[in-house]
Amino acid sequence: MLVSGLKLLSRLPLPVLYGLAPLLRAGVYRFAPSRRTIVVDNLRRAFPEHEAAADSLIRQTYRNYADVAVEMLKSLTMKPADLTQRVRIEGTDLIDRCLGRGEAVLVTMAHQCNIEWLLLTLCLQFEHPVEAIYRPLSDPRLEALMSSIYVRFGGTLIDDRNVVKEVMRRRAVPRLVAIAADQAPNWHDETYWTEFLNQDTGFYYAPETLARFANFPVVFIGMQRIERGRYQARVQLLGEPPYRESGHALLDRYIRAVETQIRAHPSDWFWFHNRWKRKRSLYG
Q1: What Cα–Cα distance (Å) separates residue 272 from each residue in 2, 5, 106?
Q2: Which residue range(s) make up the domain with 130?
Q3: Is residue 90 part of a domain?
Q4: Residue 107 included in any domain
Q5: pLDDT tens-digit profile of 213-244?
Q6: Is 60 exceeded by the pLDDT of residue 65?
Q7: What are the CA-CA distances from residue 232 to residues 13, 33, 153, 181, 276 (Å)?
Q8: Is residue 217 part of a domain?
């Protein structure tokens, strides 16, 4: 019933769905006070210099979140041609160059703007396979629904619990392997600690580990909202093998690319996640 209802709703024109976004925004704001506390705390700690404009930033964050939610709903029935008119990606020649050499490319990104649309656009833009590393949803009905979107656009999902096995199994196949590693690692995960948005923050090692282990070139795709329902993304190279740098320079470049993007457009990041619940003092 839930799945069929969402599919039916997704057939409404996008402007009509945007008309429902204020209701969703108000509902989330009013009936999820614990989540609102997280958003407010995250933004004020990350941007203490924006104290005077904090309320405006919080309101815009909720507006953008609601818009992305209805856009994701629309993805269930959206035509590929419509999507390619709404997401433009610049600098794809960097990826084409690597694919042309017979290499797989690790595509890193952040939960900025509508990365679901970004991933689906990658599926449409490249003839090579696109595989997205993700964490399965707890509800099997919604999990199947989300998976169907990627299948319909020609993409594949990789369960993050099997990522090393799946990536290495097709190591020599030219393709795009996408990962958004800007959320908080689990308690049991090895964690790389650094300063990020004015506070000690833990990151997954995954982008660097996969790149070095599989010998993948790495790009970052930053996304920017141009207007409602339209986005522009840009590809930048983070590194290519052979990786001879010591330390975690590749991972640091990814983290700084994410931070730069967030600082430029703070209301478009996913602030609803309790990103800083883990404290460095408890580890190591």
Answers
A1: 24, 25, 26
A2: 83-279
A3: yes
A4: yes
A5: 999 999 999 999 999 999 999 999 999 999 98
A6: yes
A7: 22, 32, 19, 20, 29
A8: yes
pTM for the model: 0.94
The neighbour count for residue 79, using CB atoms within 10 Å, is: 8
Please tell me the least confidently modeled range out of 22-31, 46-55, 67-76.
46-55
Q: How far apart, in Å, are the Cα atoms of 156 and each of 18, 107, 114, 119, 138?
A: 28, 14, 18, 10, 19
Is residue 272 domain-resident? yes
- Report the C-alpha gap between 188 and 139 in whole angstroms: 23
Q: What's the CA dihedral at 122, 124, 127, 131 to 10 degrees?
A: 50
At 64, is the pLDDT very low, low, confident or very high (cuts 50, 70, 90)? very high
Which of the given ranges, 1-5, 44-48, 163-167, 260-264, has the highest pLDDT on average? 260-264
pLDDT, averaged across the chain? 93
Q: Is 147 exposed, middle or buried (0-12, 13-18, 19+ CB in 10 A)?
A: middle
How many Cβ atoms from other residues are within 10 Å of residue 126's Cβ?
Answer: 19
Number of domains comprising the chain: 1
* Cβ–Cβ < 8 Å for 231, 121: no
